[in-house]
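Late entry, evening session. Most of the bench is empty. Finally got around to the prediction I had been postponing all week. Sequence below, unchanged from the version circulated by S.P.
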Amino acid sequence: MAERLRAAEEAVDRLRDELLRVGVVLPSLRVDLVTATSEAPYPLVELGRCNLDTAVRLAAALEGARK
């Protein structure tokens, strides 16, 4: 269980770092501890809620990644 939680936290940290590089901050981004400590095969990542400006920045970053 500790290994799955560590892997999930590393994934969240990586996602947070990459989002910051394109100017996007998701304040609620975190590992869902219920799934990380349960028998679920894979922990879930909570992206959470964001304001309109953050949603627009995220959409622009994803659009830029496609090009």
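Two things to note before I forget:
The chain has a mean pLDDT of 90.
DSSP finds three helices and two strands in the chain.
Will write this up properly tomorrow.
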